[in-house]
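Hey,
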Amino acid sequence: MGKMLSKIFGNKEMRILMLGLDAAGKTTILYKLKLGQSVTTIPTVGFNVETVTYKNVKFNVWDVGGQDKIRPLWRHYYTGTQGLIFVVDCADRDRIDEARQELHRIINDREMRDAIILIFANKQDLPDAMKPHEIQEKLGLTRIRDRNWGLWGTHLYFRPMLNPHSVFSVITQLHIQRMRKVQKDKKQMKKKNKHCLAQPHITFIGRSCRCNM
């Protein structure tokens, strides 16, 4: 596994961008992944960044504030991002459509088209919280084509506990799947180009045609 990660990740670093609406629980999740325990947080006005190491790979996780006035600044963090963690408050039914719009705006940006996607369906333990399958439908995840994505249900009080190793294992697997698809597409394109070059070029002139060998 270690050799595979070294081959896939190259420099053994991965940039992860954690986004979502305000009060979704992004910062709490970030420090749970970093420290393995819950901490008291305040609304993020700018950003928090922490590095978490898993199987010799350094995951640089950027947590950016989700207030509506800050969201236009999200795009400045897109460059070089390899993975997106999008956090959703499952108890906030009034803003689930807003979350969907923001998610699709992010993943449709040119800078984010190669990033793998992990949705955190957070606060599953709150009353009337939407279940993961409902979140999948509300966010339109099944309409996401040609992208590697996953859905992870989490609890506000982390019962059961949020296992950092499990989270980064999922991210790693999604990234490996994406890289394998990229390599497969490249091989198919190379084979297609080779086949095209082997074919004679035919130019049509009026009702006759000329074949250039």
